[in-house]
Amino acid sequence: MIPREKSYLKWIESAIERQKYGKEPSSLYEPIRYLMGLGGKRLRPRLTLHAYSLFRDDVRRIVPFAVAVEAFHNFTLMHDDIMDKAPLRRGKKTVHEKWNVNTAILSGDVMLVKVYDMFLGLDRRLLGDVMKAFNACAVGVCEGQQLDMEFESRRTVSEAEYLEMIRKKTAVLLGFSLELGALLANAKATDRKWLRAFGTNIGIAFQLTDDLLDAYADPKKFGKQVGGDIIANKKTYLLIKALELAKGKDRRELTHWIALQNFDSAEKVATVKSIYDRLGVRELTARKIERYFKRGFENLTKVMGNPANKRALEEFTKGLVERQY
Asked: Please, where are the H alpha helices in 54-166?
């Protein structure tokens, strides 16, 4: 990891450790500290710092606002894990598993309130623009999550519908993370626009990568249950393409496993993955990921700013393409 990235991570982790969410009742605030302390890539706040560095050098000044983005992200994870009935997050028990569902709901609610508190430290001249962009992002995330849940009960979901869902649920937050850095640096509106577009496109690629890793990652590195999407019949890009392409025996076998109520999880994952392999779904997904990353980098070429720091942002983002967890 280059020195810049080490510094960014050190600043972010230090700010997270110092953040005070509340004391009593401890059962309300301890889950927040637990989830925020589980680590993770800290991708979104790092993007905020990178975007700011394109236009100004005093990057450490905005760390508290980058951490607000991370807190919002973790709020969405806490509630998403409840809806998905997920047992693990970053290799550890999810909040609703470690405590209970009601506590996870309330702790998530408090996290969101604290995010607004964290943004109140902004320069008043920037507060309106930041909050307008943040609220649009937050609404988009909720819309995307609702679509994701609705897709679970639908028999068919088109590729276009799925890509729009992940744009809202995942990608708009990456777009906002970059736009926030530009906003805090008083960058031009055009630069904010292209950074948001860059983030949105790499965000779609990031979620498609997550779909791919859910089925094919090394369990020791992934930190979540590998094959969880297959077990839950989640309409990921892989399943949507498989349903679109499968015929004959593959079609019958795939629909059989989707309809089955009682099954051995390991057998289901292995069987569905073998269908994906026969249909070339893994390769199709990889090509789609590459397409969105390419589109994102084309957006980034239109952004002005410090050339060396722009290269650092490019290198950081390229690392996402090859991630294994």
From this structure: 63-84, 95-98, 101-119, 124-152, 159-166
Whole domain around residue 227: which residue ranges?
154-325
Sign of CA dihedral 237, 243, 244, 248: positive
Only one residue has tokens 């609705």, namely: 150
Consecutive H or E run containing 217: none
Q: Are 46 and 12 in contact (CB under 8 A)?
A: yes
The rounded distance, in Å, linking the Cα atoms of 263 and 256 is: 11
Identify whether 9 is part of a domain: yes
Domain boundary among 126, 144, 171: 126
Residues 224 and 177 both lie in one domain: yes
Same domain, 207 and 267: yes
Q: Which helix (H) or strand (E) element contains residue 93?
A: strand 92-93
Joined tokens for residue 144 = 């995307």
Q: Find residue 93's DSSP bridge partners.
A: 88
Q: What is the DSSP letter of 232?
A: T
pTM of the model: 0.92
| Residue range 218-269, pLDDT digits in tens | 776 665 667 989 998 989 999 999 999 999 999 999 999 999 999 999 999 9
For residue 132, count CB atoms less than 10 angstroms from its CB and return exposed for 0-12, middle for 13-18, buried for 19 or more: exposed
- Judgement on whether residues 122 and 74 belong to the same structural domain of the protein: yes
Check which CATH number belongs to the domain holding 37 and give it. Answer: 1.10.600.10
